[in-house]
Amino acid sequence: MKYLLEKIGDAGVVMVCGVSGSGKTTLARRLERCGYRMLSIDRMMWDKHGLSGVDYPEELYPLYLEEAETELQKRLDGIIATGGKAVVDFTFCKRSKRDVYRDFAASRGAGVALVYCDTPLAEIKERLHRRNLTPGPDSAIVTDEMAERFFNGFQAPGQDESFIRFCGDKENN
């Protein structure tokens, strides 16, 4: 963790990206214990609407996600405005989404660090099998088929993006 904090430096916003089951939330919680305010899109969705497909119809997910993102950005703006530090727990599965959040934070004067949870698919599936037994605010149910689709569709940070690769407790870039 010490190495990761050194790499993050004085960035006021840490964006944690990776597919479901890659370790984003676990890492975000560790950063929270180091003084960062954690903003989790999954937690916000759960708190307001519950579990997709159980507490509300799956077709409402895009609408609820848009609402949650608006609220997340509002909260992030408040943290930045008061000089606080935030860790954003979100898949950031596309470069364009990462760019939106980087630009948002930069426009408010915050430095940004992108941490990519680079986890092999087999390990992701193993984690998800365990996690699926107790769905909750930070653990939506994800099938093997969904995990493969998410993994294959994830746009990993490119060489032209500044990022920190996080592989469990072995970080490198």
| DSSP strand count | 6
Distance between the termini: 15 Å
**Topology as a string of helices (H) and strands (E):** HEHEHHEHEHHEE
Large-scale geometry:
globular
Low-confidence stretches: none
Strand order of the largest sheet: 2-3-1-4-5-6
* Class computed from helices, strands and strand pairing: alpha/beta
Kindly describe this structure:
The chain has 173 residues and is an alpha/beta fold. Helix content is 46%, strand content 15%. It has helices at residues 2-8, 24-32, 41-49, 61-81, 95-107, 121-131, 144-153, and strands at residues 13-17, 37-40, 86-89, 112-117, 164-167, 170-172. A hairpin with a 2-residue loop joins β5 and β6 (170-172). α3 crosses α4 and α6 packs across α7. The radius of gyration is 15 Å and the shape is globular. The two termini are 15 Å apart. The model has no long low-confidence stretch (mean pLDDT 92).
